[in-house]
Structures are given as structure tokens and as C-alpha cells.
Amino acid sequence: MDMSMGGMDMGTNLFQSTNMAFARDYWYIIVGVLGLMAASRAVNFYKSEKRLRRRAANSVEYPTRPNTKFLEVWATLTAVAREASYPQLYSPSRWLSWLTPPPAGRIIVLLIYWAVITYMSTSDAIVGDAYFWERIGFRNAWVTVMQVPLLYLLASKCSILGIITGTSYERLNWLHRWVARTIFVTATIHGWHFYTEWVLADFVELELEMMPMVKYGLGAWGVLLWSLISSLGPLRRMAYEVFVIQHILTAVVFLWLVYEHVPSYAQYNVWLAIAALCFDRFCRTILLLWQNVKVFPNKAKCQGGQRIGHQAQVRAIGECITIITIKDVHFKWRAGQHLYLWMPRIGLAEAHPYTIACAHQVPGTCICNSIQLVVRKHNGFSRRLHDFAANAQAAGKKEKLTAFVSGPYGVPPRWDIYETLVLISASTGASFTLPILESVLNTKKTNCTKRIDFLLTAKQGEEIDFYVTRLHEFIDRANSIGIELLVHIAVTQGVSPRANSQNGTDVQALGSLSPTSTGSIQGKMINEITTEQPQVDLEKSAASSPRKRLSNASADSHVHHASVRPDVEAFIRGPVEATGGETSVVAISPNYFLRTAFSIRPVVTRTRSLLCAGTAMGAHALDALAQKVEGLSLESIADKYPNCYPENNPFDLYRAHLANVLGEITGVDTKIIYPSLSWTLSLDKGDLTLAAPALRVKGKKPDELAKEWAEKVSSRAAIIAALTFFVKGAPIVQSVVPMVRAFGSEYGCNKFLGLKDPRDPSKGKKRMIVEFSSPNIAKPFHAGHLRSTIIGGFLANLYEGAGWDVIRINYLGDWGKQYGLLALAFDRYGDEEALQKDPINHLFQLYVRINKEMSDEKETIEKRKQDGEDVAELEANSLDEQARRYFKSMTDRDAAAVAQWRRFRDLSIARYRETYARLNIRFDEYSGESQVTEEAMDRIGKIMEEKGICKEDKGAMIVDFQELVPGKEGKRLEKPIVRKRDGTALYLTRDISELLNRYKKYNFDQMIYVVASAQDLHLKQLFKIIELLGHKDIADRCQHVNFGLVLGMSTRKGTVKFLDDILRDVADKMHETMKKNDDKYSQVANPEATADTLGISSVMVQDMTGKRINNYTFNMDAMTSFEGDTGPYLQYAHARVCSIKRRAGLSDEDLASADLSLLTEPHAVNIVRLLAQWPDTFLNVLKTQEPTTVLTYLFRMTHALSSSYDHLQVVGSERELMKARMALYDAAHIVLANGMRLLGLSPVER
């Protein structure tokens, strides 16, 4: 057996090259991961800057929403990764909390890391030959030593890893511990395999004598074992200061032992670890000296300035809180960062981390920065500190200490890039969340934040009294800059800080409520506020007693107190569901607090009440109900609530009724209650919800108020009274069903909304122009125009239903040089018979042919030019030049050229009308680029030059927005050209003239451009130029409704599928599906027409299923399925209700006389509850302008109908019951049809 030193050199000759390759691969993987994290950091930075730019431009309502496909995908991946990383199992006992496993995200990271280590430890190493033990031993020796540099990099406070990834050391330290444990395992495997081989060979003692490195290896393994054991929570907490000192020493000793153990060619791993350690200590030493040593302190300017260290003042607050104010700190910090504090007089060899409890300089201390720390008394240093401060105060002394600080450390995220912030903290955890709040409110930069919900909990009020004082100050600041700040304070034992307040604050049931928005953003943008607000010195504010109240009473309405542990999950859910953008949740509290809080589900008693209603038809039914409810009438309700239309919307009556009842019970103004009652998203959550904080009732505990209100409401209301309200079945059934049937196709619409003055209809309607579709003449209706056509038709129907005077305009692409080229093609290859038969396809084929010839000609001319030939004559007679000359004759109004163009245009429009008719689309005007005269564009150009809006640049006329619009908005609008060097006007010039002429012609109140999101910049430029021309009132009336792309609609090489072909294919597929059921197919009078309608429905429903801005993939198989939420399924649901009516054979008179009191089944009541929601849905769609909002409602209705058929049988039931149930289904049929027609669908009956 080889007894030489080579036997312990980590694999020379036999294994060294392979093992060293694995070590290199390990660090390639580490570098790759760092690269991915750096790239992720760059993407997040780009996302943040993009949000802030959008917020500064005030261009969108929700700047924190992703607005590109890439950002949508990134946001989805980020959300999925975060959700997957959150789950965690907790130890059932606080004393065993140190055994709690990591969260799922960290476990996934560890599993991946261990998979890599396992692979490297075993790959090609487990071979049953003579070198079995040595091969595995050597491999694991390399796997162990290659991890050592990472171990020390992860332990560094000034970490290179943190610099690259933008992560602070405390977020890496957990991985440091697990890498150490992994190293221990691989080192154990390494040693055990060698020891086993020696035992088998019976020369253990000889190996120990001959190989000194073995002893160093055993020593390193023992040091590592000790380090792991001493790092366990219970041992570490016994004497933390001792642990820190010994841990540093063991880290140094471990490196020395490893260095002595490994051969020279592997010692580079040790040197890398030493480099990481030295770099960290060097940076921290420099930071410590720079922050604590001032060669020439300016004591005259800085109170407390001293050469070595900083002057610190301490003050004890109550039994457990100490406030430390550190003077003359000459560095900046960010909210959420921490520092290490060393106070030799309190702890000679102790430095502890504390969160900086203020976001900015504390005024009143000195002109330089002062840092304040809030320390809760535990054991050791914090106890000695509190005792020292308390003893000094008792003796009437104001002791001054010398403090040394190191930091700040930590890389907190940006807080100003979220629309909503939810800040949750327990006790002194507010030292972390309060500076975040302060930094957001005091920033002078652009800020995306619109709402902040702040939850502070503590056992004793004295722990948080000074935080509450500062929160009141912040509420005033938030109000002044338009940020909605809601503060919730829960003190579970002792006296709440509100006891010190003379005026008191709202009492809200945090145990049963989630916060709901009660305000909106008002005032100037954040970055326009220049007024400085004073900060509060924690020490001074805590010492003041009683607390000084603010002069502004508004703060009281935003601070809500409770004496029970809050439902954290509900607290978070409220703002998250209310926001339109992204929410950031920051929770700083013990794990057991969050675990317990999330498990609480408080219950508020719900009481029922009975009230009968009449059975009259339509509005008479509601009027009868209103009169029986506290003597209300529709007229009295409308007078009391101006935005209430109970004759159109059943729930407006319930809102008014509930507002009146609660107004008397609570003493709150009914005008506050009424708008606070909102509809729910699902029936199991009730019919109306009320955010209790909006009522602002003071003086009683929430449980008492809830019980009192429930008892008083129970005998009077037509609802179930609780935090959510459920309508009673009998009254709503007997009023809504007749109302739906009476209004018919008008049910849900609210014609008052389109009136210039709802109180005086004689003043007329507001006028709306919707411009949409806008295809190019002589080209087939390309599928890319589909979205604009469908969405535009929907919006026109929507505003028409709201009572507006809607004008539908199709702004055709009917002008330009391409029409000269088309005329040349027709002269050469045109066929008059083909033109009359199918003008669009024939002209398109001609255009494709001539365009190819022109491209080939250009390539030939370019090749000859490169060969040195004279191509002047070729260029002068080229197709491109001929087309330009022909178009010039068109602009000069040559009779023959214009006549030919007009013939092409008229034939194309006639063909388009046929396609639009299939889609239920009509237009009031076919306008186009040709309608804008050269004279009008010249006139606009001169005005723009006179006003300095455009200028000459290299012969062309451009608009330099950077010179006209300050800030980032001007830069984003770029420098569009309005006229080329040859004098040709561009699209933007035509659009300016067309918009102004359109306003002159129609005097519209609002105009919507339904154009793809690719034209966002163009429309912004257009509206801004109109504003610069002095027509801001016109620009403000214009809106761009954008949308994403339809994917999967093109063939190879960019050729597109035409809409007529797509509709034909879809109709054929639907026809084949219909034929599979012979019985039903035979009952359809015109199966081809029905198949065409179903096919169109499938295309339109797939287009409208998602948000407008989202791209979607065209999927014929999915859209034509009768399963799932598709167009065919929606048509099937409508046809099934119609079939039931035919089979029942009841007349309208039979349905009108139905006894609706028989409809007591839950399925029947739920259908009626959904029917009552349709008017509210219509109003919501007016706000969102999203067709998917309508679709979501319709599919909820179809699902409710589908689940009811087995329970509400019509045919075969007793006659009176059959009439009642058929009246219900007839009302459902009406609402389904109304919603489908609003979307532009044609409901089928068979």
C-alpha cells in the first residue's frame, strides 16, 4: 500500500483534475446565480423608474400596474415566486421556536443547493473498486473546501455578494448558517471515508503519526462542530456577547486549521476566504473611524459635537422603553436601515443592532443630524441601559454618555413605488415602520403612493404613546399632500394611548373589520409640494404629558382604536382588494403574533327581519316597497340622494332605506352612509357591504355598537344587519322580477347619466363621439382591426345605454401615395368584373402584385447604382415615382384621378358594411384622411409656427416637446415630424386638423379614440399639441381607450388572416358541432345563419374575456367549445331559457299574474339577487370601460341558472308554481339578452 504523502493530497494524479473541475464548476454556478440576481435587480430598477415616470406624467390612473407584456410576465413570475416562498411551519411552543424550519422559499433554495452539492459529491465517485473509499473521501474534501469562501462571503456585513445583488447582510446570514452545516456534513463524509479505509487496513495510529495534516483536519472538524452547536438559539441567547467573541475567534482558527490541512494547490480557497474576511473588516473599520472620529469637531455649530464618538442622551419611558438620542451624526440613512451601537459605559465589549427610529434629522437638537433609537428592555445591555436612564431621571440628573455607531446597514426596498402601503408593527417594531411612513410623506420626489394603512399593536399603551403622537402629526401631513392615511391602534392590556386624548378617537373593531378606503387623492402631486413639515423629537414627545392635541381635528377621524388583538389577515385584505395597483405589506412583529392573529376569525351576530312588499309591475313594485319601508317614496329618495335612481336600480332603494335606518340608529349623516354602501363580488359575501370606519362613530366599543345596531335594525329593515347586508328574499323577488319584465330591453340602463342636467331633461343629452375600427381602403378587413371594432362597438352601445347622444365614426385610411400605386396596378392588371364582384379582395391582390414589382424594381436600381451605372432615368420612371406623381394629381384634385379613387373608396365601404352588419356594428359617418384638406393642414401649420410649437429641422417641421413641456413628460413625447422636407403632411398633422374640425362640427362633450396601445405615444402627442394650440378644453374632452394585440392571427412571412376567412372557418366549425345533435339541429330554422352567429359570438367573447390592455392568443378550439366560459356556452345558456319558455306555453298575461311569493327556494332568490345587480354592473362598466366586466356578470348569471334547473322545474310543476318560476326565468332571459346586446352579440333562441 502507498504510504507516501501523496495519499493525502486531495487526489493527485488519480482524482485531482476531476475534483478541481467540480470546484471550478461550483463557482461558475455561484457567479451565474449572482448574474441572475443582478439582472433581476436591474429589471426591478427599470420597473421602479418606469412607475415613477408614469406617475410624474400623471398619464395613467394606476402607474404601478405593469403596462407591457414583459412587465406583466415579470410581475406574474415575481408574485408566484413570492407566494411560493411564504408558507412556513411554526413550532407550537415559543420556547422551541429555534426549531422552526425556514419558510418554503428558503427551503427551495436549500434543496437546490443541496442537489448541486450532492451531485458534485457523488458524480462518478461511487465505483466499487480498490479506490472506493479514497475517491469519495477526496471528492468530498474538494466539495468541502470549495464552499469555504462562500461561507465567509455570506458572513460579511460589507459583502461583495450584497453589493452585486443589492441585498443586505442580514438577508444573507441565514444562508451562511446553512452553508456551514452543509460544510460540516461534507467534511464528515470526507473524514469518515478515509477513517474507514484506515480501519480496514489497520494503520490508524500510523496514519496519525505520519500525516500531521490529519490532526489539523480533525481540529478543523471539531471547531466547525463547536461553532454549529454554540450557534443554536438557546445557547446563543445565554450570553450573546460571549458568543460573538468566541464565534469570531473560532472563524479565524478554523481558517488556520483548514490552511494547514489542505495541500498547497487547494489553499487558494482559504486565501479567498481570508480576502473576504479582511475586506469586510477593513471596510467596517474605515466606516467606524469615519463616523466616530472628527479631527476638528465644530462644537459651536453642532450641540454635543465631540472628537471621539458621539454625545448620547438616554431617557426611560415607562417600565420598559428607553429612548436614545445620538447627537452630531454626519451621515445619511434610509428608512428601514439599522446601525450597531456601542456605549462603553453601559457595556464595555457590547455592540448591538438597533433600527433607526427616525427617517430624517430631528429638529431642536442641533443643525446636524441626530439619530434616535427606541430600545425595549429585555436582559443584559437593554436592561442596564433602562436602569441607568431611570436612575438618572429619579435623581434629577441629565446624564450624557459617549456612544459609538457603525452603519447604517441594510438595503431596504423603495417605498415610494407602491400605490398602497400596509405597515404592521407590534410595540417597538414601529421603529421600523414609522420611519417608512415618515419618508414617504416627506419626500420631495415623485411618489406613487396613494394610501397607507398603519397598524400598531402593543400590550401596554405606554409602549407606543410617543408613536401615536407622531402618527397624528403624519395624518395632517398626509392630508396636505393627498395621501390617504388610516391608523389602527390595538392595545390588548392596560390603557390605550387614546385615554390621554381630550377629544378621543374612533373606536373600530379591528378584530372583525378590514380597513376600507374612505377618501381619495386630492391636491397637488407629491413632487410639487415644497412646504416643510416639522419633525417630532421622540424624546420630547414622549416626555410631554398630557399629550398635546393637534389643532386639526381631521386626525381623529383617521385613527381607530381597539382593545382586542387585530385580525391581521383581514387588515391586509382590505387595502389589497381596494387598490388598483401594487401593494407592499411590511410586518414587523414576533412570529407568534402573526400566527395567532391570522388564526382569529371574529363573528358578528346577524339578525333577520321581515317585511312584505307589493307585487305591482316595474317601478310601481319598487314604489310599493318604498312606501312600506318607513314611508319612503321614489320621489323622496331622489330628492334626498341626487345620485340615486331607484326607478332604474333596485339596490339604490335598498341603499337609501339602509342609510335612513342606520342614520337614525347611529346618528351619522345619511349622506355619509349612502355612498359608503357598495355591492359585493359574490352572493356569499352578501348584497351590500358597509365599511364601518366610514361612519366615524365615537365613544363605544365596536362589539357594543354592532350588537346595539343589530337589535335596532332587526325589527325595521328589509335586510339582514351585520357588517355585510343580505337582502330579504320575498321583498326583492316580488319587486325586481316585475321590474325587469316591465322595463324589458331598457332594464339596467340609466338614461339620466347622459343628460346635461338630470333635473332638467329639456337641456338635452351630452354628445359622445366614438372613433373606432378605421381600416385601410382597398384592403380586406384584417383581423388586427377586430379588437378596435369590437371594443368600439361595445363602448358606443354602453354610452348610448347611459343616455348619451353617441356618434359612431369610422376614420378610414383612404389617402396617401399607396392609392397612386393601386391606381397604376388597376390600369395594368385590373378586371372590371372582378372589381364589381369582390372589390376589396381584387384591389388587395392588385396592390400585393404591384408592391412586389416595386420592391423588385428598387433592388434592381440599387444594384445598378452600386455597379456605377447611371440610374437617373430608371428612378424618374420607377413605379415609386409614378405613384408619387399620381398621388400628387389626386391632391391637386385631378378629376379623373379623384373619380377613380372615389370609386375604389365607395366599393370598399359597401363591402365593409356587410362585414360590420355581421358584427352588429353600424356607423353614423365614414370619415377619413381624405376629408382633411391641404389648406386646413397648411393653416394649422402656420398657427403652430406662429405659436412656436413647431420649428424647422433639416428641412422638415418638427415639434420639440422637450422645449415646450418641462420635465420628463417633454422628453417622453419625443420630437415628432409634422411635415416632411418635400412639404408632405404626416398623420399627426392630419389628426390635428381633423380633431379641431370635428369639435367645430359636432361640439362634442367627449370623444373616445379606440386605438391599439402601439399608438399611445401618437395620441399623447396629438392631445398635447391641441392643448399647446390653446384648446385645453378640447384636449380634456378626448380620451384614448387602448388595447393589446391579437396573437396567432398571422401566417408565416407576416401574411395575415382576413376576418371574413376567420369568421367563415369558425362558422363552419360551429356548423359541424351543431350537426352532431340531429334532434336539436332539426329544430333550427336556419342552421347556417345560427352557426354564423355562434361563430361570431365565439370570436367576440374570446376577445372580450380579458382586460383590454392584455394581449391574447387566438385559439379556435377553445373559443368554439361549449364547455367553459365561451361564446357558444353563453348563447347556449340564453337559448335554454328560451326553450323552457316555449315548452311552458305561457302567455305574457299568465306571467304578469304570477304569484311571486311562491319563489322561496334559495336558488330562486339568488337568481333575483343577481338580476338586481345588473344596474350596478352597468354603472361599474361605465367606470372601467371594460367589456370583461359585463362578461364576468353574464357568466355568473349563467352559472346560477345552470345550477337552478334541477331545483326549479317549470314544465310539469303545479300551474301557479310554473307561472312564478317561468316569470323568474323570463326576467333572467331579458337580462342575459340585454348584457349580450350591450357587448354586440346577437342572442339566439334555438
Automatic annotation (TrEMBL):
EC number of this enzyme: 6.1.1.19
Cellular component aspect of the GO annotation: membrane; mitochondrion
Protein family: Belongs to the class-I aminoacyl-tRNA synthetase family.
CDD domains reported in the protein's UniProt record: Anticodon_Ia_Arg, ArgRS_core, NOX_Duox_like_FAD_NADP
Chain segments annotated as transmembrane: 26-46, 104-121, 141-166, 178-196, 216-235, 242-259
Protein name as it appears in the record: arginine--tRNA ligase
UniProt entry keywords in alphabetical sequence: Aminoacyl-tRNA synthetase, ATP-binding, Electron transport, Ion transport, Ligase, Membrane, Nucleotide-binding, Oxidoreductase, Protein biosynthesis, Transmembrane, Transmembrane helix, Transport
GO terms, biological process: arginyl-tRNA aminoacylation; mitochondrial translation; monoatomic ion transport
InterPro entries: aa-tRNA-synth_I_CS (IPR001412), Arg-tRNA-ligase (IPR001278), Arg-tRNA-synth_N_sf (IPR036695), ArgRS_core (IPR035684), DALR_anticod-bd (IPR008909), FAD-bd_8 (IPR013112), FAD-bd_FR_type (IPR017927), Fe3_Rdtase_TM_dom (IPR013130)
UniProt superkingdom: Eukaryota
Nucleotidyltransferase recorded as keyword: no
First-tier enzyme category under EC: ligase
Membrane topology: Multi-pass membrane protein
Limits of the FAD-binding FR-type domain: 304-415
Catalytically driven reaction(s): tRNA(Arg) + L-arginine + ATP = L-arginyl-tRNA(Arg) + AMP + diphosphate
Localization, UniProt: Membrane
Keyword flag Aminoacyl-tRNA synthetase: yes
Region span, Disordered: 535-559
